[in-house]
Design brief:
heterodimer; A: 205 residues; mainly beta; 11% helix; B: 195 residues; nine-stranded antiparallel β-sheet; 9 strands
């Protein structure tokens, strides 16, 4: 979503406030039984996200670079509060950003994205979604993003984007997030990129 | 009768303990039926790189839930208990959140999926979106079956189709319906999927 709008400064400020510097994420592992072990980007492994740390953890792309505008600033949990705080400052409409829990099917972990009009009137929107896997250096690492697709409001299977990654289902539970970005065509809309988070018995290294 | 969440999952034991391989159970239900079919919500992919959103659909293409509803109305002729049916709702849809007291469980659990269990008459499928989705289109139930277990309708989050197991006459009736795109299926074989 293009957030070069009235709300951008506020959203960016929120990201700065809530983000954890990457160096700080090296302190401890979130994995079971390894709390005292120093974990770096290089030796971190996928694991279960501990409550608290995961909410504000940085997001990394597939090259390990921090993703500045796809971070924890606007989340499923915080979006309602932020909507209220920013409500008077926003001029745009608010689409419903549909997504599902990351889930395992036939050798893949995947997540979908879709939209509904909410307060928008646009007939179509551009939608994409991305999958992130939790790593024990307290980062969410991008594993796949769908292409951006022009979609009509959700009616079913033909109105969804999908991000998907092959995974190994012989692991224990791994924490995953599925973020969705909806940009209503021809309208200014709100900038949230909400997510669903789930623990899935499947790992991607 | 109206749809109501069940406080226990006993009614789903026949499905959970069916012994059907998990990948097959999720998309077709138990493997005990005489015949199986796929209700294709959108056409099958024509290439390995095709995504669901690449399919060009007519403006009036019916929603998944509308197609599911029609199929369930056909299946109503093939049960002695249309007034007593069970519906599973997957826990993972952002726009169909489970009520907190339901989320706490018990939920129906099979490998890689958990569902809330609802009970109602088969006719209650007509109110699915109104009851659970604020009147907006939402995905079909993950499973529907009548109390006499004469058939099972399965609609998992991933496939672009729903799997149906039933007696052959029921599957034939679905295939004959001109408003539905239903094809025979062999659940143990690989099925068409978008990537």
């Amino acid at each position: 979503m293009n957030i070069s709008r009235l709300g951008r400064g506020l959203v960016a400020a929120t990201i700065v406030t809530l983000s954890v510097p990457l160096s700080a994420a090296n302190a401890n592992s979130g994995g079971a039984g390894s709390a005292a072990v120093s974990v770096t980007y290089a030796n971190a492994v996928p694991g279960l996200a501990p409550a608290g740390k995961a909410d504000n953890a940085p997001y990394l792309d597939r090259q390990g670079r921090r993703i500045s505008d796809w971070g924890p600033g606007v989340t499923a949990q915080s979006s309602a509060t932020q909507q209220a705080e920013l409500g008077s400052a926003r001029l745009g409409c608010t689409p419903v950003s549909g997504r599902d829990d990351p889930h395992y099917s036939s050798g893949d972990v995947s997540g979908h994205g879709w939209w509904k009009k909410g307060t928008c009137t646009a007939a179509t929107a551009h939608v994409y979604n991305c999958l992130y896997e939790w790593y024990t250096d307290n980062t969410w690492r991008q594993k796949d993003c769908s292409p951006s697709k022009q979609l009509r409001p959700y009616t079913g299977s033909g109105d969804r984007t999908v991000a998907r990654a092959q995974c190994n289902p012989s692991s224990g539970y791994i924490s995953w997030r599925n973020h969705v970005d909806v940009d209503a065509d021809g309208q200014v809309d709100t900038a949230e990129k909400p997510y669903n988070q789930a623990d899935v018995i499947c790992v991607v290294f | 009768m109206t749809l109501a969440f069940c406080s226990d999952t006993v009614a789903a034991e026949w499905l959970v303990r069916s012994g059907t391989p998990a990948d097959q159970l999720t998309v077709f239900g138990p493997d005990r039926f005489e015949a199986f079919a796929r209700l294709r919500f959108i056409p099958d992919p024509t290439s390995g790189r095709h995504q669901e959103a690449d399919v060009e659909l007519p403006v009036d293409h019916p929603s998944d839930i509308a197609q599911a509803r029609r199929a369930l109305h056909v299946l109503a002729q093939f049960t002695a208990t249309p007034q007593d049916c069970y519906f599973c709702l997957w826990e993972g849809y952002s726009d169909v959140p489970l009520p907190p007291e339901v989320r706490r469980g018990p939920l129906v659990e099979i490998p890689h999926r958990r569902y809330a269990l609802l009970r109602g008459s088969l006719q209650d499928i007509d109110d699915w979106e109104a009851a659970l989705g604020g009147g907006q289109p939402i995905p079909p139930p993950a499973f529907v079956w009548p109390a006499d277990h004469r058939w099972c309708f399965a609609s998992d989050v991933d496939p672009h189709w729903a799997g149906i197991g039933a007696e052959r006459a029921a599957v034939d009736a679905l295939i004959r319906d001109p408003e539905l795109d239903v094809v025979p299926a062999r659940p143990a074989e690989a099925q068409p999927l978008y990537r």
